Amino acid sequence: MRVQLAPANLEILERLNQEYKIPITSLANSCIYEKLGDKIKLLKEFDSSLGGDDTELKIRLYENEREYLIKASKLTGINSLTGVVKYLILNSIYEKRYITPTEIEAFIKFKSEVNSIGRNLHQILKHLNIHKELKSDNLINTIQELNIKIDHTKQEIDNLLKYTNKRFKKQG
Known about the structure:
The chain is an all-alpha fold. The chain folds into 3 domains: 32 residues, no CATH class; 40 residues, no CATH class; 71 residues. 70% of the residues lie in helices and 0% in strands. The protein contains 6 helices and no strands. α3 packs across α4 and α5 packs antiparallel against α6. About 5% of the residues have low confidence. Keywords: Coiled coil.
């Protein structure tokens, strides 16, 4: 397909192409996508079954951008620059947000905290059922320890929810 552009528009695209080394087709597509906005869905939801072969993509970065990506890799738990770039691109394009290894680790820790609270509650109930008499000091100490763990876990849940909500609000 052949498209004719006004000479002034073509000149702008060529300057951007020279400066940023981005193909003119990609620049034109970006302008179209930005202009259309939410009116139509040009990008289909990511489907790995349609992925097919790998495609190699080369990018040029300034040193400060590279350093930023290295810092991002440490924060996200992704060990390669390629992985960080891929993660950032996929999260900026597709509606479904991808979870980093660091976030998965936080969810696993959260799950183990909830499990330990459940085990503590079970032990208290079991002890109460076996021993009809229970020293009130032991019960109070156990409940206070459990309360501290519950407060700590509640704070972690609040932090995770705030962070997750903030991530998904950026998308919309």
